[in-house]
Amino acid sequence: MRNLKLTLAYDGTDFSGWQVQPGRATIQGLVASAIGRLTGENVLPQGSGRTDAGVHALAQVATLATRSPIPVENFAKVLNDTLPASIRVLSAEEVAPEFHARKSARAKTYEYRMDRRATCSPFVARYVWHYPFPLDEAAMAEAAGVVEGENDFTSFAAVDPEKSPGEQGREQPRTNVRLIYSSLWQRRGDEFVYTVRGSGFLHHMVRNLVGTFVLVGKGTMDRQGLRQILALRDRSAAGATAPASGLFLINVEY
Question: Which end of the chain has less Cβ packing within 10 Å, N or C?
């Protein structure tokens, strides 16, 4: 038995997220079908975490066990011949038996992109949150550091019990405490981009953080208000969930 590591990129717009779901097109489901056609095995690749419907990835990681003797250098090419163009296997490599895409992960980086132009180009609309309204971007950038460090992020976690495993990819999370290594807003041309790196992320956590930072940008909340929301551990105290279209899984560290 071989343990293979796949690194994938995908446009999540037309999919119901990573996790396989009956009757719905998902990244995991389509990759599993492509592996089945290639190897003849019934294999479900395990991802580093479950990205939601509409969320994109530049470097999602998945592992799978296979008895297939197909050389790893051929895996990516053959899978890409089968998968839709919106899902690409960037690389395939054989790894140690104990390596697991989710359990072995040590940190992840997400990026959220807001398009600040008056009119959003149709060629980027699928990959941003178009927000042409006034925002104090400097205030948002200054407030970003409030969430750095180890905190209980219950105020920024989805309350849907069916969704509880969430973006951090843990099957039954026992705590909502997460360690955020860096939290940063910065301008990139016409886009205002939020980049966050942490030990793990709760379901909707990044999108809920973005929605709350927008309140800071609108002047209805300041840094102290953000600290209070964090301390309350109450989802209803935080801002609305930002649209999925602007969120990208950038990197997984092992």
Answer: N
Q: Which amino acid is at 72?
A: V
Counting residues of the chain whose pLDDT is more than 70, the rounded percentage is: 94
In which residue ranges of the chain is CATH 3.30.70.660 found? Answer: 107-253
CATH 3.30.70.580 applies to domain 2-95: yes
Q: Which tens digits make up the pLDDT trace of 156-171? A: 999 754 443 444 444 4
Instruction: Give catalytic status of residue 234 as yes or no.
Output: no
Class of domain 107-253: alpha beta
Tell me which of 14, 52, 160, 234 is the catalytic residue.
52
